[in-house]
């Protein structure tokens, strides 16, 4: 059942956000401390468990993956409601602080990314990208080097 | 007639948002393929279009939520709001290659630490240069350079005044917008093409909306890795901003 996948995703999100809130209370900060990150790790763990026990059905997978394919459209909707006017009219202090922060962090990304050599991306990573890009149906036609039957491959492991 | 159409949009706001964003993506993908011959990712165009529309919405309505402040397009606010955004971000974790993520785990932690410290230093120095000499204001503006959520959380905890809070939030929002637009432009230059560098990038840039947009516009396969580290960033910032960072700043400026 597809709803099982959606429910699994919802459960992981709820637990993660709850733990993040709890951590916030314990550490006395008025914010959620990494709730979404915890939720992501719970979902990763849930997927491993389901595969190991052979319980990851196609429908369950569909329920989660549908929301992964909705990621980019949702992000576009997010972009459409940013307070761009405030960002543009913030004055020099805002522009200087933001621009230098972003440039410095890009430079640091370049440095850190090169630490310990480069990793080549696996077929599984490419498949994940195809799902999130929302072109799972025409996957064999896309340029990404996909394994021929990603579904069966991941089910067998 | 137009009135009735508007009524449908208002009543079915989320459904309308799906249709509008779908149309936007369709146009952007066509533009990406036809006008730039696939050189620019369709989602990059869609995100920049979204930001442009957000500024139009902001100018027309004078509100803070871009396009979502127009009543007929209020559903955009729900679709792109924190709830569905986080739900979709968590869903992308289903596509994570565990071995890759584990391999880059330590790098992500280092990036998280750097991504909190570096923006804060830059923010505080800028604040100081522009004539803010009290510890509360300096810390609040510095925290805004971490993300636009860390800024106001820190400011509220320290009792900063509202102009400083506004500057802090504006700094964070500007950072987020710049990360969204800038990431695809510099991706190749900074080696952002594998899970390892994506995890470093997420931890360093932090701003969840910036990283969400930046990676979606760059390469979908990097999304879950960058998002995984970026989502911890705000929590850590909120933790150290009003406490450790404030104490250090106060010790330095008195």
UniProtKB/TrEMBL annotation, chain A:
Species the sequence originates in: Methylobacterium currus
Superkingdom: Bacteria
Alphabetic keyword roster: Membrane, Transmembrane, Transmembrane helix
InterPro entries on file: Maln_transptMadL
Transmembrane intervals: 29-50, 62-81, 93-112
Gene Ontology CC terms, in alphabetical order: membrane
Keyword Glycoprotein attributed: no
Annotated spans, Disordered: 134-157
Pfam families: MadL
Identification of the protein by name: Malonate transporter subunit MadL
Coiled coil: none
Gene from which this protein is expressed: madL
From TrEMBL, chain B:
Residue intervals of the Malonate/sodium symporter MadM subunit N-terminal domain: 6-252
Transmembrane annotation, as ranges: 12-31, 43-60, 72-94, 106-130, 198-218, 230-253
UniProt keyword annotation of Glycoprotein present: no
One term of GO molecular function: sodium:malonate symporter activity
Keywords assigned: Membrane, Transmembrane, Transmembrane helix
The organism's place on the tree of life at top rank: Bacteria
Protein name from the UniProt record: Malonate transporter subunit MadM
């Amino acid at each position: 059942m597809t709803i099982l996948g959606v429910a699994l995703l919802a459960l992981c999100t709820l637990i993660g956000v709850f733990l993040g809130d709890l951590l916030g209370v314990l550490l006395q900060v008025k914010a959620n401390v990494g709730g979404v990150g915890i939720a992501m790790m719970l979902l990763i763990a849930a997927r491993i468990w389901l595969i190991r026990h052979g319980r990851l059905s196609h429908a369950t997978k569909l329920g989660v993956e549908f929301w992964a394919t909705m990621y980019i459209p949702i992000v576009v909707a997010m972009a459409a409601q940013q307070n761009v006017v405030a960002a543009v009219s913030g004055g020099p202090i805002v522009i200087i602080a933001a621009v230098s922060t972003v440039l410095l962090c890009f430079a640091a990304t370049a440095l850190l990314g090169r630490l310990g050599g480069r990793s080549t991306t696996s077929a599984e990573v490419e498949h994940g990208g195809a799902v999130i890009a929302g072109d799972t149906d025409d996957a064999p036609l896309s340029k990404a080097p996909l394994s021929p039957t990603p579904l069966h491959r991941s089910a067998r492991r | 007639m137009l009135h009735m159409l508007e009524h449908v949009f208002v009543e079915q706001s989320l459904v309308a948002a799906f249709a509008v964003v779908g149309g936007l993506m369709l146009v952007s993908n066509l533009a990406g393929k036809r006008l730039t011959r696939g050189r620019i990712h369709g989602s990059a165009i869609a995100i920049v279009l979204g930001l442009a529309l957000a500024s139009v919405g902001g100018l027309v309505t004078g509100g803070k939520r871009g396009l979502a402040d127009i009543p007929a397009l209020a559903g955009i606010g729900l679709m792109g709001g924190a709830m569905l955004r986080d739900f979709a971000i968590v869903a992308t974790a289903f596509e994570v290659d565990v071995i890759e993520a584990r391999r880059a785990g330590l790098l992500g932690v280092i990036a998280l630490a750097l991504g909190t410290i570096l923006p804060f230093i830059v923010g505080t120095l800028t604040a100081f240069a522009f004539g803010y000499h009290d510890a509360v204001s300096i810390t609040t503006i510095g925290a805004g350079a971490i993300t636009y959520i860390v800024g106001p959380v820190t400011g509220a905890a320290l009792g900063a005044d509202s102009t400083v809070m506004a500057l802090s939030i504006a700094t964070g929002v500007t950072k987020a917008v710049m990360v969204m637009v800038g990431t695809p432009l510099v991706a190749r230059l900074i080696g952002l093409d594998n899970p390892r560098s994506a995890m470093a990038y997420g931890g360093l840039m932090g701003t969840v909306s910036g990283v969400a947009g930046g990676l979606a516009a760059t390469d979908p396969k990097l999304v879950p890795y960058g998002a995984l580290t970026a989502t911890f960033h705000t929590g850590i910032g909120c933790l150290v901003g009003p406490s450790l960072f404030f104490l250090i700043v106060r010790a330095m400026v008195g």
